[in-house]
Write a structure and sequence with these properties.
This protein has about 100 residues and is mainly beta. It has no helices and seven strands. A hairpin with a 6-residue loop joins strand 3 and strand 4.
């Protein structure tokens, strides 16, 4: 699975930047994002950009509406997707700062 993702919220809490190191042989990534304490998550798919091995992949997610208002914590896990469409186990959870 990919490494622990790094999460950085914008000042308002309505957008999130999720970053993780590139994984060899991945054709896409699935990012599962949820509010801390919630069991409901949203899945976002990111195709692998043309880049060198070892570089950082990022996904910007906007339009978030935290139930507790701005300042809520989010949790994300990343899965790599192989050419056959199989998903890896999820990464360890990353928590927003």
């Amino acid at each position: 699975p990919p490494s622990v993702p790094e999460l950085n919220a914008d000042g308002s809490g309505f957008a999130m930047l999720v970053q993780w190191p590139c994984v060899a042989h991945a054709t896409a990534y699935v990012v599962e994002l949820r509010e801390s304490g919630s069991t409901h998550f949203e899945r976002f798919i990111r195709n692998v950009p043309m880049q060198a091995q070892g570089s950082v992949v990022e996904l910007r997610i906007g339009g978030l509406s935290p139930t507790g208002g701005p300042g809520r914590c989010y949790v994300a896990q990343v899965r790599s997707v192989s050419a056959c469409g199989c998903e890896s186990e999820p990464s360890p959870a990353g928590v927003s700062q």
